Amino acid sequence: MPEMPEVEGLVRFLRARATGLAITRVQVAAIAALKTYDPPVDALVGMRVDGAERHGKFVGLRLDDGAHLVFHLARAGWLRWSDVLPATVVKPGRSPIALRVGFDDGSGFDLTEAGTKKSLAVYVVRDPADVPGIARLGPDPLGAGFDRDALAALLRGRRTQVKGLLRDQTIVAGIGNAYSDEILHAARMSPYALAATLGDDDVDRLFDALRTTLADAVETASGKPPAELKDAKRRGMAVHARSGEACPVCGDTIRSVYFADTDFQYCPTCQTGGKVLADRRLSRLLK
User: Fold this and answer.
1) Residues spanned by CATH 1.10.8.50 within the chain?
2) Is residue 168 within 8 Å of residue 161, measured between CB atoms?
3) pTM (2 decimals)?
4) Residues 72-102: tens digit of each pLDDT
5) Which of 10, 97, 170, 257 is at a distance of 20 to 30 A from 74, taking alpha carbons?
6) Comparing C-alpha atoms, which of 232, 160, 146 is closest to residue 196?
7) Which fold does the domain 148-271 belong to in CATH?
């Protein structure tokens, strides 16, 4: 799933490439992906792009008539940019393309989604806050007002595992499974640690790891075209999706914990005092 750094990379690319261009066509190929009807999607034709914005994991194109084209790529979605967009009409159900947007210089992009479980979402709204997922977002962890004390306040009193807390978009916006793995590894913290039990030193480490990990990933993503962002993300991972490999910090073997539809990775030596965490499917969680 694209997370904050990749979404920020897409936003910066679109801001540089699409600002000032007029939309000449919008083709919806996956009707279920379009979540709004007022304003109608056809109303975007003729509008110019004023800029691009990120809201957590949502991408928003700001248009000159006060409308916003907002989309969430979900687990298997992506944006495919073309300097020369194909002239063919996208046929519903015949390709992974959910939405095609064309501009007056001949360029444009497709929103695509792989797999059979379709969750990609597209909204045409007058205000990004009209998108329910954006209205519920917690603070942006790279925002100017998000400091160590702000994180401590979010953690305080929560009998929630810190891994799940970092992924909860209503608490902190933009972090998913991959970067929560990376943040916790950098903080030398168990994914199963309870937020309410973290001491001052723990919060210090977690905040530093959060800001550094995300800022470095955003810097890596910045300036890259969409086609290169996924590979850049994979190359930057220390533990996520690297089960069985050596930890780059201590050399221990990176382990996984599997769930029904996902998994996460961690280093026992760096994060759990050498303990191998139990699989949630088989036994109670180790703290």
Assistant:
1) 148-271
2) no
3) 0.93
4) 999 999 999 999 999 888 888 778 999 999 9
5) 257
6) 160
7) Helicase, Ruva Protein; domain 3 (1.10.8)
